[in-house]
Give the backbone structure.
Amino acid sequence: MGKFKSMHQIACHECDLVQEIPPLPAPATACCLRCGSVLFRTKVDSINRTLAWTIAGLVLYVVAVTFPFLAMKNGAIGNQTGLLSGIQQLYHQGIISLATLVLLTCLLIPLLQMLALFYIFVPLKLNFRVKYAISMFRLFQKVKPWSMMEIYLLGILVSIVKLGKMATIVPGLAVIAFGLLIFVLTFALSAVDSHMVWERLGGDS
Ligand SMILES: [Zn+2]
């Protein structure tokens, strides 16, 4: 992805040539005039697809946070744990850095991403302007690499297998929601057409 200088100007990331780009129909690929490297690709129906996946993601998120994650049963003793109570337990056990990391990468950042997309794309869809949309989109792009839900899910699956020898583990609805959320969020992120967003917001980065 090249670097935007202004609304319709983009600098090639390979050779730094700044060039004017007219509005392009989707799907289209804009290539550098001098070196031919891809400047960006426009995406078909980006606004609708991003919004649909984002809304689905928010619903799954609510399910993942509110419903039980795992139910453990060892003889007569039963125990249920949720996503939040799992992180709480880490805090109580004194593993504060890990608890904070899990809280950030698995819960707060994915939520922030979805809320940012919702905040930016609803006005784009309905053609009105909101304050701070440009700052929100910048923040959205910055936190992207810090979303690591799949690692958390992997950890959960490993512990299910390990604990399975000691107790009966029943995966809850939240595990399924969380697993689906990983895919849905990936689809939402890949539907985002950054060039189109910058062009519509009139910002530069
Ligand atoms: Zn170039």
About this structure: The pocket of zinc ion is lined by residues 12, 14-15, 17, 32, 34-35, 37 (CB under 6 Å).
